[in-house]
Known about the structure:
By secondary structure, the protein is mainly beta. The chain has three domains: 30-107, no CATH class; 108-171, Antifreeze-like/N-acetylneuraminic acid synthase C-terminal domain (Type Iii Antifreeze Protein Isoform Hplc 12, Alpha-Beta Complex); 181-232, SH3 type barrels, CATH 2.30.30.760. 13% of the residues lie in helices and 35% in strands. It contains two helices and twelve strands, in the order H-H-E-E-E-E-E-E-E-E-E-E-E-E. The chain has helices at residues 6-21, 30-44, and strands at residues 51-56, 71-74, 83-91, 97-114, 129-135, 154-155, 170-171, 181-188, 191-199, 208-212, 218-224, 228-232. The strands form three sheets. Strands 1, 2, 3, 4 and 5 form a five-stranded antiparallel sheet that branches. A five-stranded mixed barrel has the order 8-9-10-11-12.
Amino acid sequence: xxxxxxxxxxxxxxxxxxxxxxxxxxxxxxxxxxxxxxxxxxxxxxxxxxxxxxxxxxxxxxxxxxxxxxxxxxxxxxxxxxxxxxxxxxxxxxxxxxxxxxxxxxxxxxxxxxxxxxxxxxxxxxxxxxxxxxxxxxxxxxxxxxxxxxxxxxxxxxxxxxxxxxxxxxxxxxxxxxxxxxxxxxxxxxxxxxxxxxxxxxxxxxxxxxxxxxxxxxxxxxxxxxxxxxxxx
Length: 233
């Protein structure tokens, strides 16, 4: 039987110990991924009225991500900046990976509620309105928050007392007219691009509008006062 020399036995022992203590590949702390998602949502919600509260759900506890030097958060297609949403976080260096986290953005603010019912054609006055406080993200789209948005306008339909007042309840002047040349503002994760197109339908502030671009492509966006159409990516 071959007997190892003392030096050989020492070498084998050192190799074995080294194999036991060899560190695993560095992992990205999951809390830093959530922090990146939270900071992104807070920045996206900065222009919303009222008090903004952001909560980001946890990653799957079994998720193991390689360490990352450049985290980038973004909205997946179809996600919105408030309410129940999803946010993606990807690593761009030195490795590439992407994860998605559930999130909620609450917008606590005062909004308008009808103190008494409206009849079709009735002109809205301050006496018809009262304020309530709640999460704007949980209310119907286009709910109004400022009496100046409603007072002096005619009701389009009958609306019951206690109903949150929406733009669609009123006859508002168009923000965009059919056939009008409009400014198209496209926004995405970290970028804003402006271009021009022609509106294919009229719309009031906050309503959907379709725009034909110079290339012939038709896109959909949200009408804003002053002949502006916002498109989110």
